[in-house]
Design a protein that fits this description.
The complex is a heterodimer of chains A (about 180) and B (about 550). Chain A has about 180 residues and is α/β, with parallel strands linked by helices. In chain A, about 30% of the residues lie in helices and about 20% in strands. Chain A has six helices and seven strands; from the N terminus they run E-H-H-E-E-E-H-E-H-H-E-E-H. Chain A has a five-stranded parallel β-sheet, with helices on both faces. In chain A, helix 2 runs parallel beside helix 6. Chain A is elongated and about 60 Å long. Chain B has about 550 residues and is of the alpha/beta class. Chain B has 14 helices and 26 strands. In chain B, the strands form seven sheets. Chain B has a seven-stranded mixed β-sheet, with helices on one face. In chain B, helix 7 crosses helix 14 and helix 8 runs parallel beside helix 14. Classes of the chains: A alpha/beta (about 180), B alpha/beta (about 550).
Chain lengths: ~180, ~550
């Protein structure tokens, strides 16, 4: 049986899509029995996928330079990229910040919030630098399949992975295609 | 109509000339997706989603009439791919990300996205942000969700006749504006709310219903509005499993063509007068609560020397019941005889081309009649002359405005009118005399109360008669003041006002959508008001009390 190796990352998102992934429950076992192999994911806590990964799943939008690097790494290491959830597909709710300059936002968030005393904007070099605008994944790299939804239903994720395992091109229709 | 032969999807059909491709497709049960198209409005062809292929060319089906030799194909790859591209452009031109928008679930753009399997944006989006206009009491305009279909603009002019909404600039810069780009709340908007009803996305929404649940969580009750005698057809959206109305929409299938006025759409939901919450009777120490048996006992004692006054808020069933118990001792508290009887109907108003309006501002009351007059006049197909001594907001589309005292001389000057429809609600004796000289004129009386005509049909006339005991049944007891002096006064009414607390026995009645019954509308047709809500207070039904009364009496 041919194994299909998947990896996933989680950029500017809320982890809801990964929760939905786990929400497949016993169907996850069914997929693994069919040949799904889970490689580097936030669930396995491995950061870098193997070079021969078949499918890279990206949750969340691209909001910082770190995210940009990570999605580019995914594109290099994976044969197919699946954008999972509204943030990865459309930019999502996090694009709300696109209408305000980044420095104003940071000031509001870390200094001017009503409950903040002596606030300061974090400057650690370990942190990613905010891009001027949050982008959907397909504005940075080529994306092969999209699963919109906030979060996408476990049914939709199962459908896509199952179709890929069966060697078909996944298409979302009817109840599986939702923007919310 | 002449018939011509065309081909649709390879099938040869004979069709009537003058029809559009979309109409023919609908008759053949063939689906063409649409967005800017809406049945009662003139087609505009601005969204381009309804494109079909005719001999290799793409044409918009909603506003292209069939022509001989057409060979129309509805779903060629060219058509489908073009529609997908158009959808991509529509979705990315402004902010149509569904999670930002409460219309999600009730949105025609979203449904089209699902229909065409749109699963990502191909173009950059979230580039522009527009200011949301929330200046209006009931309506929010959010240009960020607008797809520029102009349904609102067309509904505002073609159906409702208000001509408030329009457009500004061109192409991608186009904006839907009120008047001369005024905030909606400061514009000439009459709050009829039709724009909210026709908007396919979340661009025009109403403040109340917007966050109160999606259509799927509501059930629709078809009813007639009883705010005024026009009696428009309404669709009442009630939230499933709760005692709560989300919104009221106009019914496109009824005489009012979906148009409502501020009173019908918002007045019925927003206007909350203090309610009488339980029955109470006055004794030496003030008011005390009284129960059903107590009420029946008191009324039974006082029935002997009593007169009953009613107003036009009562339904036919209630009037008949009162008439049955109190026979000829029932009077209308207010004048309900029309000064001159109507000899035309709403249908004639819609077709009419000359109107004389006397002493009534049709933007403020009888709003739907106003809409029908205004849409004829402002589209250049009708003349309007107003006689009013007060400010009349119809004045800006009239040929002439006269004072009411100028009726005689004014009509003299208007000799070139053939047979105008005269619209009025109350006229003085002198005005009636003047008008009666014009034999060719048509008359349209606006009854003063919702069911004025129902009272007349039951032969209940306005008359003031003093009596030891006075019973009033209705919503407006303000005319009781003089009559009620030195009498024992029993009041059946829904509202708690300062003046009713001077009376002796107060019995709360149901109000608004807690009530059910029929009434005669302005054209003397019987229409039904449906019950939507359960009662909220310890109110009483006339029927229960009166039935008990007749039982007690017969013993």
């Amino acid at each position: 049986m041919k194994k299909i190796k998947i990896a996933s990352i989680w950029c500017e998102g809320c982890s809801g899509c990964h929760m939905s992934f786990l929400d497949m429950d016993e169907r996850l076992v069914e997929l693994i029995n069919k040949g799904l192999e889970i490689n580097a994911t936030p669930i396995t806590d491995l950061k870098v996928p193997d070079d021969d990964t078949d499918i890279g799943i990206i949750e969340g939008a691209v909001a910082t330079d770190h995210h940009e690097e990570e999605v580019k790494m995914m594109r290099e290491k994976c044969k197919f990229i699946v954008a999972l959830g509204d943030c990865a597909v459309f930019g999502g709710i996090v694009t709300m910040r696109n209408y305000t300059p980044v420095d104003e936002l940071l000031k509001r968030g870390y200094i001017e919030t009503e409950s903040t005393v002596d606030g300061k904007i974090p400057t650690s070099p370990e942190l990613g630098k905010h891009l001027p605008k949050v982008k959907a994944v397909n504005e940075v790299i080529r994306v092969d399949y999209y699963i919109p939804g906030c979060p996408p239903s476990a049914d939709a994720i199962y459908h896509v992975l199952n179709e890929i395992l069966e060697g078909k091109k996944p298409m979302l229709t009817g109840e599986l295609l939702k923007y919310e | 109509m002449e018939k011509i032969k065309i081909k649709i999807n390879g099938q040869e059909v004979e069709v009537e000339q003058g029809k559009t491709i979309l109409q023919i497709a609908k008759e053949m049960n063939l689906h063409i997706p649409t967005l800017c198209y809406l049945e009662p409005l003139l087609p505009q062809g601005s969204c381009r989603l309804c494109i079909v292929e005719d001999r290799g060319k793409l044409v918009t089906s909603c506003n292209t009439q069939v022509a001989p030799n057409m060979d129309i194909k509805l779903d060629t790859p060219n058509v489908v791919e073009s529609r997908k591209l158009i959808l991509q452009l529509l979705f990315t031109e402004r902010n149509h990300y569904c999670m930002y928008c409460e219309a999600s679930g009730n949105c025609e753009l979203q449904s089209l996205g699902y229909e065409f399997g749109l699963d990502h944006f191909e173009f950059e989006t979230y580039e522009r942000k527009f200011k949301v206009d929330d200046s209006h009491d009931y309506i929010i305009i959010d240009p960020n969700r607008c797809v520029l279909c102009r349904r609102c603009v067309r509904a505002c002019s073609q159906l409702a006749g208000h001509n408030v909404l329009g457009e500004m600039n061109r192409g991608i810069e186009t904006m839907i504006i009120a008047d001369t780009d005024l905030p909606l709340g400061e514009s000439s908007c009459t709050s009829c709310g039709l724009c909210v009803q026709v908007c396919p996305t979340g661009a025009i929404t109403d403040k109340r219903s917007y966050y109160f649940g999606k259509d799927i969580q509501t059930e629709i009750v078809y009813s007639n509005c009883d705010q005024c005698p026009v009696g428009c057809g309404v669709k009442v959206y009630k939230r499933k499993g709760s005692n709560f109305i989300v919104k009221i929409y106009g019914d496109f299938e009824k005489e009012n063509e979906g148009v409502l006025c501020k009173l019908g759409r918002y007045g019925a939901l927003f206007e909350e007068k203090p309610r009488l919450t339980s029955a109470k009777i006055k004794d030496d120490f003030g008011f005390r609560k009284i129960d059903f048996d107590g009420i029946v006992k008191v009324i039974n004692e006082k029935m002997e020397n009593s007169v009953v006054y009613v107003d036009g808020s009562l339904f036919n069933e209630e009037i008949a019941l009162i008439k049955k118990v109190f026979k000829d001792r029932v009077y209308s508290l207010y004048e309900n005889e029309p000064p001159i009887k109507s000899n035309v109907s709403v249908g004639d108003i819609k077709k009419g081309d000359e109107f004389i309006v006397i002493g009534v501002d049709l933007n403020r009351e009888y709003g739907v009649i106003g809409s029908f007059v205004k849409r004829k006049v402002s589209s250049g197909n009708g003349k309007l002359i107003v006689f009013d001594s007060n400010f009349n907001s119809l004045a800006n589309i009239t040929e002439y405005v006269f004072g009411r005292d100028e009726l005689e001389s004014g009509l003299e000057k208007l000799k070139d009118l053939k047979s105008p429809i005269v619209i009025y609600k109350n006229l003085s004796q002198k005005e009636v005399e003047i008008l009666s000289k014009y034999k060719d004129y048509k008359f349209y009386n606006l009854p003063l109360e919702t069911n004025s005509i129902g009272l007349l049909k039951e032969n209940i006339k306005h008359r003031i008669e003093k009596s030891k005991n006075v019973i009033f049944i209705g919503k407006n007891p303000s005319g009781l003041k003089e009559i009620a002096k030195d009498s024992f006064v029993i009041v059946f009414t829904p509202y708690d006002t300062e003046e009713i607390n001077k009376f002796d026995l107060l019995i709360p009645m149901n109000d608004g959508f807690e009530r059910e019954g029929s009434f005669y509308n302005i054209d003397e047709k019987i229409v039904q008001k449906k019950k939507v809500l359960n009662k909220k207070f310890e109110t009483f039904e006339l029927k229960d009390i009166f039935e008990e009364l007749s039982k007690v009496n017969s013993l």
